[in-house]
Amino acid sequence: MRASDLILLGPHRSQIRSLLTAGAGSERSAYMLFGIADIEADPWTNQPRRRLVSHRFHAIGDDDLISASARHVTWQTDGFMRLLNEAKANGLIPALVHTHPKGHAKFSEQDNRNEAELARTAALKGMPGLISVVIAGNGDIAARIWAQADKAEGLGRILHVGPRLQISGLKGTPADFLDRQVRLFGKEATRQLSGFRCGVAGGGATGSALLPLLLRLGVQEAVQFDKDIIDETNLNRLHGGRRSDVDAKLPKTAIHTRTVEDSGLGMTLVSVDAWAGHPATWDALKACDVIFCCTDDHAGRLFLNRFARFYGIPVIDVGLAMQRRTGAAYDLFARVSTLVPGHPCLLCGGYLDPRRAREESMRRNDPDAYDRLKEEAYVLGEGDPSPAVVTFTTEAATMAVNEWLAGVTGLAGEAGMLPTRIRRFHARDERRPFVEPRPDCPCCNQAATLGRGDVYPFLDMVT
Ligand SMILES: [Zn+2]
Ligand SMILES: [Zn+2]
Fold it and tell me: Which ligand is nearest to the CA of 445?
């Protein structure tokens, strides 16, 4: 049996909460469907793990309600059979939701008896489990899964994903070296920050600045994705890079691993020597609680844009553009976008170019075909190496991590993370463009993709 945890997406959490209002003091119930994210080997424990991602909420109509009070709720279960059929047809896991308006987020003896019976029905239908979620009047949520009909296992760890980010069920005390941070954010927020498993896609200029920030903030588990070897021209901006590393042709990941190990701050950093998006990265990406996208390629960005939607794992994307327009005029932009349910995706924002993404993945996967197209002038071309200066790449990394801090701690208000911030270094200002999800966006505006989890082909992408 795989250890399991839950990812609860903001829109579903709101729908669960709405049952409290609808019940006005008496219990209410609903159904849900969860996507499955199976991890063959967790990067930090090497053990298999299963994550359950909230995918859809199914209200139970008033017609189906038989009776309800502050201590019980009973309803017609015809809808339950339809739910099981839908789960089975789509490889999803069914769930029951109910409220304890006057009680705690704890399952009662009554719950045990009722659910055991429904779990038996689900097992007979061939379901790999039945999830149960209970919400208390104070908003606390508890969850468990009946993987066998006679035994439920608690899902103690829940990652709540929206503009605010939170992991419930974390234990442990913040490390001593975090004392001054605890004085600002408090113990609980610091425990939260330490408990996030962080992915860093891209170990170049931005990634090399970002990873040490996570280290100093107390993050204990991180995974980095990169395939590059350091070269002479990286030394103007790659934090931790040494001239001797260039001579030794060290992978960038090895440089960052050395930085983390030398610090002695207790972070376990795992390296995956592949670009985010390569099948070798899928397992580790699914194991993350937040992913910082620090690549400068469109292909990796397009991939993570979609990944965030399917797995409900927040992606914080960093983009930079630097050029000298004329003798005295500069364009210096840093953009940070947070990909969580409710925020428009990078395609809707126009922040990535699907054509360039296709060309980049072709260049990596089929260089011969890419060269042929290039000769025929069908590709946009990469141009000369683009300009890059360490102060801007480093500030962009800081912006990204600060946005995550805003999501976890609420330091910039209850609203949490902004969808997109664009800092213009040349104008010394910051813009927050308002972007609406496009009605026809194939990524962020379809209920079918939200929290869908594992599907074949991966992310339903045909390459
Ligand atoms: Zn109950
Ligand atoms: Zn979109």
Answer: 2
pLDDT per residue over 290-328, tens digit each?
Answer: 999 999 888 999 999 999 999 999 999 999 999 998 888
**Greatest distance between any 2 Cα atoms in the chain:** 77
What is the 120 CA–ligand 2 centroid distance (Å)? 40
Q: What is the distance in A from the centroid of ligand 2 to the CA of 421?
A: 17
Centre of ligand 2 to C-alpha 35, Å, is 20
- Cα–ligand 1 centroid distance for 119 (angstroms): 15
Strand partners, 133: 97, 143
Q: Which ligand is nearest to the CA of 354?
A: 2
pLDDT tens readout for residues 210-232 = 999 999 999 999 999 999 999 99
Q: What is the pTM of this model?
A: 0.96
